[in-house]
UniProtKB/TrEMBL annotation:
Record-linked SMART domains: FCD, HTH_GNTR
Species: Mesorhizobium montanum
UniProt xrefs under PROSITE patterns: HTH_GNTR
Domain HTH gntR-type, residue spans: 14-82
Protein name, UniProt field: FadR/GntR family transcriptional regulator
Keyword Cytoplasm: no
Length: 257
């Protein structure tokens, strides 16, 4: 690449609000602000970081959406009681649970599209039965209003196993419970992915994947898996934006100065 091209390449600078989010995360991780304690006021944070109130509110909305702080009307913004040290370390290194969920979905797109196609071609009767069993277990749990995360992971893992290539299973095992953001039993769970509406959308897409694999249609299985994971990303982003807007409005009401 020419020197001119290198000169023209510009790296994206982090938004001011992102810088504030990272700084406050590190304070929480270090225990400088303890769970249950109140954060400095908007005015104090504005002076500390040298930014506008709008930037501070955007940063606090992000932290609230990630479950690290909570606005209390007329009282201010407080650190939530359930922050753990282990999550603090991971959050600092990898981002929020929401960003982790989106990143994991992106990785799964690279792995599971081909996995579904190979499963349609290579599956044996026992492997197909395992995929069906996981599908119906998800349905049973959904109708019973019980956590579906383990069955969701079992469905995708059964498809990976049906490729008869152990590395597909190993890749999902590396992601582990992070692969399923709707698993309420997992520390990686997020409230965005726990609604019935979100999970019913997943199950409808699971059925399309299952039918394509059962029909031995590799291309249809790939497209069904692509649509499933892409739609999951889209649904997640939409709910995340709505939740951040809600917290931004709550923070305005909670401001005391």
């Amino acid at each position: 690449m020419s020197d001119t091209a290198n000169d023209l390449r510009v790296e994206r600078k982090p938004k001011l609000s992102e810088t504030v989010v990272v700084a406050i995360r590190r304070q929480l991780q270090a225990g400088e602000i303890m769970p249950g304690h109140k954060l400095p006021t908007e005015g104090q944070l504005t002076e500390t970081f040298g930014v506008s109130r709008t930037v501070i509110r955007e940063a606090l909305a992000k932290l609230a959406a990630d479950g690290l702080v909570e606005p209390r009307q007329g009282a201010g913004v407080f650190v939530t009681e359930h922050i753990s040290t282990s999550f603090g370390v991971l959050a600092a290194d990898m981002g929020s649970k929401d960003s982790i969920a989106l990143n994991v979905l992106e990785v799964r797109l690279a792995i599971e599209i081909e996995s579904a196609g190979l499963a349609a071609i290579r599956r044996n009767a026992a492997q197909e039965a395992a995929i069906q069993e996981a599908f119906f277990e998800f349905e049973r749990l959904l109708l019973a209003s019980q956590p579906t995360g383990p069955a969701d992971l079992a469905f995708h893992r059964a498809i990976a196993s049906a490729t008869n290539n152990p590395f597909y299973v190993e890749m999902l095992d590396v992601l582990g419970r992070r692969a399923i953001p709707c698993d309420v039993t997992s520390p990686w769970s997020t409230e965005i992915a726990q609604s019935d509406e979100y999970q019913r959308g997943l199950q409808r897409e699971h059925l399309v994947i299952l039918n394509a694999i059962s029909a031995g249609d590799a291309e249809a299985a790939r497209e069904a898996m692509r649509a499933h994971l892409t739609h999951s990303q889209q649904r997640y982003r939409e709910r995340l934006q709505a939740r951040q807007a809600y917290y931004a409005n709550s923070l305005k009401a909670a401001s005391t100065d």
